[in-house]
Design goal:
CATH superfamily of the domain at 314-451: Histidine kinase-like ATPase, C-terminal domain
Helix content: 55-70%
Distance between the termini: 31 Å
CATH architecture of the domain at 314-451: 2-Layer Sandwich
Number of strands: 10
Shape: rod-shaped
Mean pLDDT: 80
Structural class: alpha+beta
Strand content: 15-25%
Radius of gyration: 50 Å
Order of helices and strands: HHHHEEHEEEHHHEHEEHEE
Low-confidence stretches: 1-14, 408-412
């Protein structure tokens, strides 16, 4: 895709600060969305962990209660249904139920008959154990699962079994007879466990994420500021580039119009008049002189076009090439009637300051030739420890109009100097225009060797 500077200019002109603010707001919004997603994931994970922990807690507590409390109270009298033995056993069980963590209890024989239950309608009935319990009935085991309402022995608790944890414990009674003790544990322990785990996990994960966000946010603000400054700088540079190109086009057009085009137009009229005279008089008197004059004019125009090409595409000025390039500029100024005295440091220079020095000399001599009405001009390019000093001075008129530090505010007739000032400022240098005593003007630039 072709690069379009005008598009970038219009892009930079569309309130770059507003664009930066939008980018920053998008960054913050995305960070907040990420925080919300992580928070939701943290809650879900905590709930899952809490559910697993609650199930494991129910299994451990159910096994402890069955083996440590219930089983030692079961003997032959309880197994055969002795009322007094059953009453003693039921007193202990119902006292435990009143504490709230256990919702329901059942004492089973290994063949699936309910020996005792807090739901009296189930006592004496025979039901089928879940498969795992059926396989291990008569042995020692502990199984815990989420209660379901599908089995017949859950009929009276169908409305609440979905929130209960069911624990089967295979053990032996006080007489050593195998029994199965079943307990239903309340979900309140689940909620407590969820809160405990959530408060243990959430501060760590969310706190770390918030700390990361707080650490990254200043970086995002800094990057957004740099982006805005970069866009502004790029916009300014492109506008200066367009202005410089426009100035160069106008200079070329003015040079061609005032010189080559005028000469060629005059030659066209003169040659056409000469041709009509030859046709009319049938003689060649004066033709040789006219052609000789036309040849001189064409040679001058050719030289002007070559000079124009050299100004448009200057020669290489780094690695010792600055002196020949400046000398060419001096020669052209001398050809226009201004004697130029040149002193250029012979040491090699980096590309950027060498090109900038060439532009200073070119602009300075161009203004001397066009506006100063000077007889002499001086060009000096000297390298020192601080950088590169470039000076273009003349002995002509116009010194009273120069006021040094006011280059950026000069009138539109000095657009070239304003563009030159801005370009040198981008390199970290300075440009001054000051009067020269007793007459003339001094254009002085200081350029850093690194930018």
């Amino acid at each position: 895709m072709k690069f379009r500077p005008d598009r970038l200019l219009s892009f930079g002109a569309r309130d770059p600060h507003g664009m930066v603010r939008r980018a920053l707001l998008q960054f913050v919004a995305r960070a907040m969305i990420a925080t919300a997603v992580v928070a939701a994931a943290t809650v879900l994970v905590a709930q899952r962990i809490a559910a697993d922990e609650a199930l494991e807690g129910a299994r451990v507590r159910g096994e402890t209660f069955a083996k440590g409390v219930a089983a030692p109270l079961v003997n032959d009298e309880v197994m055969t249904g002795d009322p007094r033995a059953i009453a003693r056993f039921e007193t202990v069980m119902r006292h435990r139920l009143q504490l709230g963590s256990i919702s329901h209890m059942k004492l089973w024989s290994v063949d699936g008959r309910v020996l005792w239950s807090d739901e009296e309608t189930l006592i004496g009935h025979r039901f089928t154990f879940p498969p795992r319990v059926q396989d291990d009935a008569g042995g020692t085991f502990t199984y815990a699962e989420r209660a379901t309402a599908e089995r017949a022995d859950h009929a009276t608790t169908a409305r609440e079994v979905g929130d209960l944890y069911e624990v089967y414990v295979g053990t032996r009674d006080a007489e050593g007879v195998p029994v199965v003790f079943e307990t239903y544990w309340s979900p309140r322990s689940l909620h407590v466990e969820q809160q405990r785990i959530l408060w243990a996990v959430a501060p760590v994960s969310l706190g770390a994420l918030l700390l990361l966000l707080l650490a990254v946010l200043p970086l995002g603000v800094s990057l957004a500021g740099r982006l805005g400054r970069s866009i502004n700088e790029r916009t300014v540079l492109l506008r200066r580039s367009e202005a410089a190109a426009d100035l160069e086009r106008r200079r070329i057009a003015q040079t061609l119009h005032d010189g080559v085009i005028q000469d060629l137009a005059g030659l066209s009229y003169g040659l056409r008049s000469l041709a009509r005279r030859v046709d009319r008089t049938r003689t060649t008197d004066g033709v040789s002189a006219a052609l000789a004059e036309a040849t001189v004019t064409l040679k001058g125009d050719l030289s002007s076009l070559r000079s124009l090409l050299t100004e448009t595409y200057p020669p290489a000025v780094d690695d010792g090439g600055l002196f020949p390039a400046v000398q060419q500029l001096a020669d052209r100024a001398t050809a226009e009637g201004v004697l130029v005295h040149v002193h250029v440091d012979a040491r090699a220079l980096p590309v950027a300051p060498a090109r900038a020095a060439y532009r200073v000399v070119r602009e300075g001599l161009l203004n001397v030739v066009r506006h100063a009405d000077a007889r002499n001009a001086w060009v000096r390019v000297v390298r020192d420890a601080d950088g590169l000093d470039v000076l273009v001075a003349d002995d002509g008129a116009g010194g009273d109009d120069a006021d040094g530090l006011a280059i950026p505010g000069l009138d539109s007739g000095h657009l070239g100097l304003r563009l030159l000032h801005d370009g040198i400022a981008d390199l970290g240098g300075s440009l001054e225009l000051a009067p020269r005593h007793p007459t003339g003007t001094v254009l002085r630039a200081h350029l850093p060797l690194t930018s």
